[in-house]
């Protein structure tokens, strides 16, 4: 139930990548046939990723993870932006984007973090109003990892284009769950990560629209058309290609199944646990995610009790410097302190079953009642 954190590597993906860790260990850049055959397989992976996203294979750049893709996008655009010093982003981005922007702020860049409303929806007018001649980049995530809320990315990309600003989206949680057709989009750069869509950890990718001026983050050899130096993670890239192929084939069907399981879990919990509430815009979110606040109790205590039953989930608070800090996403949404503290994210995948969902739904009221009986706030 914690698939926004990471996913199981699909069996089909393991079968596809395994020969490239043993038998076919050649370097794809080599001139000889042994390496060349690996290069051909890399091209197939690039083609598979491009097919899922509706772009050209030459617009895919493989990286080591979503974080690297985000860092490259932001730093790479700024490096080519001349005197422009402003980046517009949101308060609810993943730390891969927010951390990078805040570090850049220390170096004199002007970072604007736009807010969200209580359902986690972006204020497009605010974002649009903040664009000026100094703006080098707008970076807005496709879907939020904590709440699953999906942003109107095409609308924002169109605004960015009309104002001549490069637009990047961190689509780490969206790729494989949302249909994306870059051929008909104004997105300039998109980040994705293998381990969120049933490929292994340690591989990611970026889409970089042909003609987008982006300085490389990694310098060295000529791999990835000079956009990302370093001998490729061959097995990981082949795995990501296969994961993209599976996603393209199954996404529509899986989304129906996932939304069904998610809604079954959510409605059962809301019914059996009083004073619980869903965080985020339920009309516009990923099919696999629900984020629920339970008043008067700590999310981390719920997690520990779930863990005793072998159930994995995430909480919206993190133990920071000895005190429980509610998540920056829930804080930005103005979720009251007590509700933010008691929030749990359940995120499903194609491998979850109805039996599992029903097991969690059965355990949750038991856990909540037990913790509330101990709570000084009830
Ligand atoms: N962006 C979002 C929205 C994420 O959810 C994550 C991972 O949780 C990342 C970026 C970072 O991806 P990676 O773990 O591949 O570095």
Main pleated sheet: 7 strands, mixed
Q: Which segments are poorly predicted (pLDDT under 50) over 5 or more consecutive residues?
A: none
* Helix/strand structural class: alpha/beta
Q: What global shape is seen?
A: globular
What is the typical, i.e. mean, pLDDT?
A: 96
What percent of the residues sit in helical stretches (DSSP H or I)?
A: 25-40%
Description of the molecule:
The longest helix is centred in the last third of the chain and has 39 residues, at 234-272. The strands form three sheets. The chain has a seven-stranded mixed beta sheet with strand order 1-7-6-5-4-2-3, sandwiched between helices. Strands 8-9-13-10 form a four-stranded antiparallel beta sheet. Strands 11-12 form a two-stranded antiparallel sheet. With 378 residues, the protein is α/β, with parallel strands linked by helices. Helix 1 (11-17) packs antiparallel against helix 7 and helix 7 (234-272) packs across helix 11 (354-374). It contains eleven helices and 13 strands. The mean pLDDT is 96. Bound molecules: pyridoxal-5'-phosphate.
């Amino acid at each position: 139930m914690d698939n926004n954190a990471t996913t199981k590597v699909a069996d089909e993906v393991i079968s596809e990548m395994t020969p490239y860790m043993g038998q076919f260990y050649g370097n794809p850049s080599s001139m000889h046939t042994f390496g060349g055959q690996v290069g051909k397989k890399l091209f197939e992976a690039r083609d598979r990723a491009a097919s899922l996203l509706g772009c050209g294979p030459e617009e895919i750049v493989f990286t080591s993870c979503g974080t690297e893709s985000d860092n490259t996008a932001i730093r790479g655009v700024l490096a080519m932006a001349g005197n422009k010093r402003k980046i517009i982003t949101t308060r609810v981005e993943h730390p891969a984007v927010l951390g990078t922007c805040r570090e850049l702020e220390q170096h004199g860049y002007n970072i604007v973090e736009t807010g969200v409303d209580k359902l986690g929806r972006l204020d497009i007018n605010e974002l649009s109003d903040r664009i000026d001649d100094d703006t080098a980049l707008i970076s807005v995530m496709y879907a939020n990892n904590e709440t699953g809320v999906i942003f109107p990315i095409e609308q924002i990309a169109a605004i960015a284009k009309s104002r001549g600003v490069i637009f990047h989206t961190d689509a780490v949680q969206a790729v494989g769950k949302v249909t994306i057709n870059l051929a008909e989009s104004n997105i300039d750069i998109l980040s994705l990560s293998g381990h969120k869509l049933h490929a292994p950890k340690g591989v990611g990718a970026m889409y970089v629209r042909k003609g987008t001026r982006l300085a490389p983050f990694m310098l060295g050899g000529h791999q990835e058309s000079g956009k990302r130096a370093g001998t490729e993670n061959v097995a990981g890239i082949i795995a990501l290609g296969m994961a993209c192929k599976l996603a393209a084939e199954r996404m529509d069907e899986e989304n129906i199944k996932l939304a069904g399981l998610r809604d079954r879990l959510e409605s059962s919990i809301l019914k059996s646990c009083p004073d619980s509430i869903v965080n985020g815009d339920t009309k516009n979110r990923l099919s696999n995610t629900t984020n629920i606040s339970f008043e008067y109790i700590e999310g981390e205590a719920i997690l520990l009790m779930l863990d005793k039953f072998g159930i994995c989930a995430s909480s919206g608070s993190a133990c920071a410097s000895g005190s429980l800090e509610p998540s920056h996403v829930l804080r930005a949404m103005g979720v009251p302190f007590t509700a933010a503290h008691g929030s749990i994210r359940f995120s499903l995948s194609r491998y979850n079953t109805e039996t599992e969902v029903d097991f969690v739904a059965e355990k949750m009221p038991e856990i909540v009642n037990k913790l509330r009986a101990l709570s000084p706030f009830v």
